[in-house]
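To whoever picks this up:

The parser on our side crashed when reading a file containing two proteins. I've narrowed it down to the boundary between the first structure block and the second sequence. Both blocks are reproduced below exactly, byte for byte. First block:
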Amino acid sequence: MAAAAKTLELIDGHDEPGIGSGNFRNEIALQQNTPGWKRVRRGPIRMRSGASEAEQACDCSSYGYAWDLCKNMRDWAHRGIAEPDIGSVVTESGHLQEDRVEAAMRRFNPMSPLDEYRAGNYFVHPTNPMFYGASPDGQIWSRITGCFQGFTEYKAPFHCIRGLLDGHVSQVEFQMACCPTALYVEYCQAFFQTKPETRNFSTRVQSAGERQWLKSIVICRIHRSEAYINEWMMPRMAAFSEAVARDDDTWMKPSVMAGTRPPRSRGTPMAERPYVRIDRVFEKTWPEAEMPFIPLP
């Protein structure tokens, strides 16, 4: 497995856990956003794409186009331009809220008593060395059978979003592509805000520590779709990765992109892509006077 060998050499050189240090052959016991995780994620040169880039690489993201990400990754990989290590305020706030989102899901998910939640760790893509893999927010193991079921993915949007974003489906399906035994991903999107009497109405951004009151929550179970993974997503991911590796400027020109990159899908509704079964497990929005308080675990 070429991807595994390269990654093993990289992390062993830093005295960090190697492939197989988790429960699966291609799993690495690494926490998100740690120095080791960032080294493994980038690889020897930063030209690999994975779960975090899936929605933009497939051109189904609400936040950016595929050619923007391709240009940035080409600069990082081929021109020695340093990849920025600081996310936006919105991204950082989301990371800080993930523990609170997990606490909210455990509280309101009717399936939680049947499940055991473990660390998500890091999964190397099992076959393609151009894909770095995925680092889900958590793993789900059945308390009844003791068997692995799937992953968890937590989202804490900075603004209230109604429902599941299409691009997130690509992200979680890529996570399951990195672990063939994953059956589903439990996706939880929770929007937190401050109480009206303590809210600062200035332009200052409310910190994650201040936003502790749950305004709305959506919990979905997104099932594995082999058609979505193999027929729709992976061909687009492969074409995107090849464009980054080629460092070909013609791929970047809108006039020729239709013939040299995956078909545009930004405006393609989910109904026109391969079917993905999505079960709504729990959804609720509270009036401000009744918002439940969710402390950090």
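<<boundary where parser fails>>
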Amino acid sequence: MAIPEHMGKFEMVRSFVGYEDNLRMWGQLWLNRTGSTVGGWLVNSWSERGAPYWTPRMHWFDKSDGKMYNVILQIGRSMDLHGEDTNIEPERAKFIRKMLEKWELEWMQDEGKKA
């Protein structure tokens, strides 16, 4: 799947790392250059030492449509989207969304302190 045209209008502004119990995740916040609005998140999630036994999986969470897309990174070159992930585990999707809400709030609070 080709990268949507709007993807070229983003820039990465901040990285986050977090966990809850044995669930782990890192994410990068990408902003739309034209309007300084959140464009989306590049994330990787996995589990350690026990159920639910998730292997690492990367996703692009697109704020414009609220969907998670499969991602393949070409290190130093590009990020390729490979369609919406309709097979994502419901608990993984819930964990990702929960962490992104937390991180987005943290980022907005930090940005407010700069003003």
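After patching the parser it read the second block fine. The longest strand covers residues 10-20. The chain has one domain: 5-114.
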